[in-house]
Design brief:
The protein is an all-beta fold. About 0% of the residues lie in helices and about 70% in strands. It is built from no helices and ten strands. The strands form two sheets. A five-stranded mixed β-sheet has the order 2-1-9-8-5, with no helix packed on it. Strands 4-3-6-7-10 form a five-stranded antiparallel β-sheet, with no helix packed on it. Strand 3 and strand 4 form a beta hairpin.
């Protein structure tokens, strides 16, 4: 895998997360999906569920309630109706 994925998770009130990561898994309305660097562009609606962000050995989990995911050549942006980080560990 070459490079990193530019990822932003945005809720109406604030930017919840932004950074360069290795992979993002998210809950699409047609099924869960994963995005790696240089992924083909697409857009999908999200259902309620978890967004998992992988960066090396680190993993962060966010709960989302609806919204959209947009994969472009610049990276992945998730515009969530609601989003908050789930504390793990």
């Amino acid at each position: 895998m070459a490079g990193k994925l530019n990822f932003s998770l945005v809720a109406p009130e604030r930017e919840v997360f932004t950074g360069l990561v290795d992979q993002v898994d998210a809950p699409g309305v047609e099924g869960d999906f994963g995005v790696l660097p240089q992924h083909a562009p697409f857009m999908t609606a999200l259902r309620e569920g978890t967004v998992t962000v992988f960066d090396g050995a680190a993993r962060r989990v966010f709960e989302v309630h609806g919204g959209f995911a947009d994969v472009t050549p610049d990276g992945l942006t998730i515009l969530a109706e609601q989003a908050s980080e789930v504390l793990t560990g």
